[in-house]
Write a structure and sequence with these properties.
Blueprint lengths: L10 H10 L13 H51 L16 H19 L2 E12 L5 E13 L5 E7 L12 H8 L1 H4 L9 E11 L2 E10 L12 E9 L5 E9 L9 E7 L5 E14 L2 E16 L3 E5 L10 E5 L2
Antiparallel strand pairs: 1-2, 1-10, 2-3, 4-5, 5-6, 6-7, 7-8, 8-9, 9-10, 11-12
Amino acid sequence: MAFRLPTFSFAPRLLTRVLSVSPQEPIPQNFLPAHFDRKLSMSKALFSLVRFLGFSLLLVFAARLAMAQQSSEASLRVPEAAAEVTRVIVDTEPPPMLPSPARVIAGFVRSESHVREALNDHTFKRDATLQTIGPDGLVTGEYVRKSQFLFDDKGNRIERVFYHPPSTIREMRITKEDIQDLAGAQLLGVDIAEMGRYRLSYVGSEKLDSRDVFAIDVTPAQSPDPQHMKQRFFVGRVWVDAGNFQVVKVRGIVEPHGKQRFPLFETTREPVTATLLFPTRTSADDTLHFTGRDVHYRIIVRYYDYKRFASKVTITEIDEPPSTQSANHRTRK
């Protein structure tokens, strides 16, 4: 829109009238021409519009300046924000594949054969305590047997008992099968020599005391015969290390039972050398159900002082005269 500025041709006449008016006289209402009022109003309106536009432009400029200043400050703060960012490295590699059940079982059999062979070359001590517990939780009877397992001059393992006080247990009788289990299934679990008489079933992978392990269930291939109590079978579960397949823990029971009763036990193994895990503790806390009575039964066994066995066996040639006899020395390591 275009505006036409007013002309002020009436200025000389207006000045003449102003000079002719006395200061004491009031200014008449018709002192200014009518067209002057209209032109003055238009001038005021134009001035107001110009002032409004100028003020608006000033506001826009101030807003643009503030936004630019904020943007500049934000760009200056970018390095500080970047310094607070924590980098997270995401491993995109897939987890390692678990071995097949057949490989786990084969690894267990191979590793256990190696451990059993190494154990047969070690002597050790065993402290066995069998207890009966009354309703109040107190011990009512105790059977203690402290032994050292050595080798005779023929290389056969023997048990040398060095502390065995009379038993005070009255609720039940400690049998030869109880003593046999202490040195057999409760110590070792599965007998590798009798592996063909067992059925092994892979259970899965687990965490055992922050260790990755595989669980394997063990059952006899045929039901144990109570008429043959000498043939003892382990029934339960073994946990093997996921890396070297060595047994870490054994939990189960020994069968057959017959008229006797045997507890659920647990045997743990720990490192005794740089590469071998040997049994260190067997425990049981179970209730045995006999005909007409129940017996709270507890077993605490500790295995310790493992030493590699070395002996010299002297072989004498009896066909030679005494003066020419020679001795051959064989060392078992």
